[in-house]
């Protein structure tokens, strides 16, 4: 009998110990946009190790990637993201407005309007630049295949579109001519992928098109890959746009999951010297470049850029005018 009692007590102790061990495992879901896969894979690994050292908790960070607009819709529809790291503020605004999952002033909670890194839009062309694509005007020439994703689902595609619009606005100074330019540009687009990574695959792996309108980080990734670096080159246009991908913790979800503290720490980690160096390593321009050695910033060329606020009056106005149903994009693009 004593043996049975002792064994039962031992078993109960093991169950309790196992329960305590599981209690130390924390789950976090980062819902992100298409081209951040490699960046957040390394961020997740390093932050989880730091969190373990600081708290003793084992942190399991899962990531979901896709077109930014599509990802925002998934969160609104019930994908329980603890944090969102999307391509543009309009998509997180949609989560706040339509999903009521975080406050409308979410962008004020972290530095630099909650954008720990920036990017811009460049052209990726095939080695030797056989079509001699130098600037936006070359994209509407007959026979030039332009690869860009769908602005309805992709944040990167919206930055591409707005960069083209900004250039045309300065070049033509006439609204009708700007619309005509964008119409001709999209006539040269043979396929609209749902996200930026899909568009890169179409251009790089499937060999479709002559030029890819790309996030700078996505173009740099292509040139850093041993299998593709000798097949492509980057062209910096005369004018581009400052792309500011923001981040936020999703209040209703973190409170439901009990993950507010770790979710906030995870996003603040992106602003640390290590987080900023990782951003630069993966082709993003650090929001606080003074935290990164100058040698690690030398890969980023000087690019003349407009901002979403200066050229378009902010994302709320740009989203409504250009990408909402019946907006300019719907008038410009006619599916084949």
Helix content: 40-55%
CATH class term of the largest domain = Alpha Beta
Percent of residues in beta strands? 5-15%
CATH superfamily of the largest domain: Periplasmic binding protein-like II
- The number of distinct β-strands equals 12
Q: Note the total helix count.
A: 15
* Overall CATH architecture of the largest domain: 3-Layer(aba) Sandwich
Could you tell me the mean pLDDT?
Answer: 93
* Shape field: globular
As residue ranges, the low-confidence spans are: 1-23
**In order across it, which strands form the biggest sheet?**
2-1-3-10
Give the structural class. Answer: alpha/beta
The end-to-end span amounts to 81 Å
Oligomer: single chain
* Biggest sheet features: 4 strands, mixed
> Might you state the CATH topology name of the largest domain?
D-Maltodextrin-Binding Protein, domain 2
The SSE string, one letter per element, is HEHEHEHHEEEHHHEHEEEHHHEEHHH
What is Rg? 23 Å
- Summed up, the domain count is 2
């Amino acid at each position: 009998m004593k043996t049975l009692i002792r064994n039962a007590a031992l078993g109960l102790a093991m169950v309790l110990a196992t329960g305590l061990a599981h209690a130390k495992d924390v789950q976090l879901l980062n819902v992100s946009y298409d081209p951040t896969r490699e960046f957040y894979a390394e961020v997740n690994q390093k932050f989880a190790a730091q969190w373990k050292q600081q708290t003793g908790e084992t942190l399991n960070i899962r990531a979901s990637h896709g077109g930014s607009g599509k990802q925002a819709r998934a969160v609104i529809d019930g994908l329980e993201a603890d944090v969102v790291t999307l391509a543009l503020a309009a998509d997180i605004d949609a989560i706040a407005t339509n999903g009521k999952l975080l406050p409308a002033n979410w962008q004020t909670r972290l530095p630099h309007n909650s954008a720990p890194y920036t990017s811009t839009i460049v052209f990726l062309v095939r080695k030797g630049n056989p079509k001699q694509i130098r600037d936006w005007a070359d994209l509407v020439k007959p026979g030039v295949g332009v690869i860009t994703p769908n602005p309805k689902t992709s944040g990167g595609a919206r930055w591409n579109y707005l960069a083209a619009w900004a250039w045309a606005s300065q070049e033509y100074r006439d609204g009708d001519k700007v619309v005509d330019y964008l119409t001709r540009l999209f006539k040269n687009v043979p396929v609209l992928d749902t996200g930026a990574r899909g568009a890169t695959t179409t251009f790089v792996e499937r060999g479709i098109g002559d030029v890819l309108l790309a996030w700078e980080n996505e173009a740099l990734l292509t040139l850093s890959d041993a299998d593709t670096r000798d097949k492509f080159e980057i062209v910096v246009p005369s004018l581009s746009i400052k792309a500011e991908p923001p981040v936020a913790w999703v209040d209703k979800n973190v409170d439901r999951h009990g993950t507010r503290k770790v979710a906030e720490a995870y996003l603040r980690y992106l602003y640390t010297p290590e987080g900023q160096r990782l951003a630069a390593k993966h082709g993003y321009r650090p929001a606080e470049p003074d935290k990164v050695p100058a040698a690690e910033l030398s890969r980023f060329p000087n690019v003349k850029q407009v901002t979403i606020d200066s050229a378009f009056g902010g994302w709320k106005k740009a989203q409504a005018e250009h990408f909402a149903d019946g907006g300019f994009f719907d008038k410009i693009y006619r599916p084949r």
